[in-house]
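Below is a typical protein record.
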Amino acid sequence: MNAPAFHEGERALQARAGVAQRMAQLGPRVIRDFMPEQHREFFGQLPFVITGTLDAQRQPWASVLVGPPGFLHSPHPRQLEVGARPLPGDPLENTLSDGAAIGLLGLEPHTRRRNRMNGIVHAVKDSGFSVDVSQSFGNCPKYIQAREPVYLEQGASAAPAVHASLQLDEAARRLITSADTFFIATAYAGDSAGAGHAGGVDVSHRGGRPGFVRLDGDGGLTVPDYVGNYFFNTLGNIAVNPQAGLLFIDFDRGDLLYLAVAASIIWDGPELRGFEGAQRLLRMQLLSMRRVEGGLPLRWGPAELSPYLGPDGR
């Protein structure tokens, strides 16, 4: 790419971690403005994809789209066709429109493969939409729990129950405290011209042993951040824009929990020392929640925890 591989928030965190020079050299080699053939084939075999979008108030939301394998396909390296519409109750129902920025995470949990793509939505219609590619890159398999998803064809059914609140209900708290996986959407909020393809919306995966997300007494969530690929896509966005959207999936019941949060990064202090091996903490204050009962037409095989996870959850 001729455009910058990283924006100023990402570069600032890379500098703080002492990897700025290495990332400046690596970024242009692995972050592309097109999808390589293996990524195009990979998306085509998935039964679901995680998305990140922004609502009218510029609040990021993490969402999920599902379909039989093949519902995603890439007719050419700079375009991805999505043959699915938002699930009932998903915030994506209100954020998907022509010209909208979108982040996509293609994840195959049972093989621990994942690829990321960011772009711009166009040609929204009843059967789906298209995405013009801005960035495409792979991610390492760290912290992914191996469980195989299977898409279930859905006939006509009653709309699922949707619970919306400014506070977590008991079912939401149980889902969070037992989770081994969640997804986080963030967005760049700086000078789009200067950021080039590094701007827009990003969505990422976080994993750990069940209970790795701590619920605090004031209604906040605290998550340890361990060694990754040093791209700092998520934390770099948060450094310039503290809003984020979280998605938790109940892999047994198919419930979906969407959270809007205000996020900050804790770099040092006694709280950080309470999470062995963590390099920093992500602290998130709840703004609102939406919980959809049984809304996900996927069934999941048994989970095998990531071999990268040590006793402390790393």
